[in-house]
Amino acid sequence: MYDPIAIKKVAEKRALDRTSQMMIEKTIEDGVETAWDRLQAQQPQCGFGQLGLCCNNCSMGPCRIDPFGGTPTRGVCGATADTIVARNLLDDLAVGAASHSDHGREVVETLLHTAEGKAQGYQITDAVKLHLIAEEYGIPTEGRDDAAIAGDLARGMLEEFGSIKNRIQLVDRAPEKTRKVWQDLNITPRGVDREVVEAMHRVHMGVDADYLNILLHAMRTSLSDGWGGSMMATDCSDILFGTPTPVTSLANLGTLSRDKVNIVLHGHNPVLSEMILKAVEEPAAKEAARAKGAAGINLVGMCCTGNEVLMRHGIPIAGTILDQELAIATGAVEVMVIDYQCIFPSITATASCYHTKVVATSEKSKVPGSIYKEFRPETALDTAREIVGMAIENFAARDPNRVRIPDRPVQMMAGFSEEAIRKALGGTYKPLIDAIVAGTIKGVVGVVGCNNPKIKQDSGHIALGRELIRRNILVVETGCAAIASGKAGLLVPEAADLAGDGLKAVCKALGIPPVLHMGSCVDCSRILVMASHVADELGVGIGDLPLGGAAPEWYSQKAIAIGTYFVSSGVYTVLGIPPKIFGSQNVLSLLASQLTGVVNASFAVEPDPVKAADLLEAEIDRKRQALGI
Ligand code: XCC
Ligand code: SF4
């Protein structure tokens, strides 16, 4: 009925990784719809929308502007292309910043509940980091117990969400010169929630119509994410669950087990996944699994919550956003636990083709067809145990005839927190700076972000990563980009053989991979902290450093926020997927060139990974020259 060669060709077009390809083949054979099929069904996608020229903000609309200079040139309210494009961008960015920051809030709240003794199963794991951050906040630590300090810190951070203080403490981590740039532009973020709310206000009909003013606020909102909500998420997760240190693990869909109960953790917030991990490790759970004929329980991660438990505990990572349907198509997933963000609303339809149960856990992220188990800090461990029990129970429903799990997970290394990198270098960034000055390492590029079915899965990340390390540029990664590199075998020390001679020598000496996994997407804040330390040691701003950023396969509004706080912080950033701004020449030229004169960084759009590497290398050379190295 199916032509296996034709199916194989389709799979090879859709994904780079062999295990993903194998499961794409199975989805086609099983008649299971995936994001790739749905993308096809959407063709042709709306040209106005792609250019950012469609406005659906109010009920005088929807309106659209003629992109070829014809009419209409204005929406019903009179908004021009510039206004509409800038406003849409701010809208998207605010959604992304809100997602990171609301996740951050939940971690801070869990820290507060833990401090107050109200959180079941949580504890303070990294007291050293707690004390260091408390000191940044001016909270006394001498002679006080950790719970009291953690309570004060959590309350101090929560205050910065709404904030009558009009400042975010962690912004002070940025080098002075960088902060001065923000002050001069009046884009220093005043509060985590405040900037998002103001963004929503400005987007309303009849508020901000000046594209430049809108974009400046977009920059401020992005900074409230990167140096606010995301940074708090990272730091408080480290305090609660431990600051990552280098760890080895496995990646790809082959991490699913034939004979064990498989539980997939999908979403973003470690507050949930850490408890599932605890529940899985309890002897009673293991016994229950064996009693049901399973060889044990196999916990694997997916997307960023997978990155969180990978970084801290070495839990294997099954894949990226585009692997979520493929994991279920193995027929071997008993339960997929979801919290929020990047979960396809169709995931329950996919699950209904097999025995898989989808368990939703967040009050703000329910999916029709899923089982809802509300997760609260007060009863977290009990809920986790219940979910694990459900997975064990469901093992009997697995149909062995429909199971197909690809072979051979790939070895990988993760756990490169900023602290871990600094420690690997001997406690200071001096060796890295020396290597950069000497030219053995040319610079550093953060490759981050998602998969997007518009690009062959992982191909953009891998081609760019390989190209950069070949040019002696150290690559640091987060999110699905890092997972892609794990699947492709770039996250092992042996991958240093693919690097240029200089980078290769440094990696070999330190025993590290040429591509470093720094965590989940909120952990892009780790990259900011690392850049700040290096800039401080040199007495310059982040914008002066030979750094770059890239999001070769991004799809999410969160990626817009990340890219914008990178650029606003002084990091030139190349996007592999064009943002919806090409309907306005003014917005385009501001973001792609004029910004350089202000923050010494800008955006570029380049889908070709080799050309993207050229752009990043040229930028690194420009900054090296300015530093006189
Ligand atoms: Fe989502 Fe964070 Fe993007 Fe992956 S990289 S697709 S945002 S899971 Ni964060
Ligand atoms: Fe149309 Fe203006 Fe309303 Fe947008 S805000 S839908 S451009 S009338």
From TrEMBL:
Assigned keywords, A-Z: 4Fe-4S, Iron, Iron-sulfur, Metal-binding, Nickel, Oxidoreductase
Requisite cofactors: [Ni-4Fe-5S] cluster; [4Fe-4S] cluster
Top enzyme class: oxidoreductase
Subunit description: Homodimer.
Binding site for [Ni-4Fe-4S] cluster: H268, C304, C342, C450, C480, C521
Function: CODH oxidizes carbon monoxide coupled, via CooF, to the reduction of a hydrogen cation by a hydrogenase (possibly CooH).
Cell inner membrane listed as a keyword: no
GO molecular function: 4 iron, 4 sulfur cluster binding; anaerobic carbon-monoxide dehydrogenase activity; hydroxylamine reductase activity; nickel cation binding; peroxidase activity
Gene3D superfamilies linked: 1.20.1270.30, 3.40.50.2030
Name this protein carries in UniProt: Carbon monoxide dehydrogenase
Binding site for [4Fe-4S] cluster 1: C46, C54
Catalytic activity: CO + 2 oxidized [2Fe-2S]-[ferredoxin] + H2O = 2 reduced [2Fe-2S]-[ferredoxin] + CO2 + 2 H(+)
InterPro entries, A to Z: CO_DH_a-bundle, CODH, HCP/CODH, Prismane-like_a/b-sand, Prismane-like_sf
Protein's GO biological process: generation of precursor metabolites and energy; response to hydrogen peroxide
Pfam families: Prismane
Family note: Belongs to the Ni-containing carbon monoxide dehydrogenase family.
Keyword Transferase belongs to the record: no
Binding site residues for [4Fe-4S] cluster 2: C55, C58, C63, C77
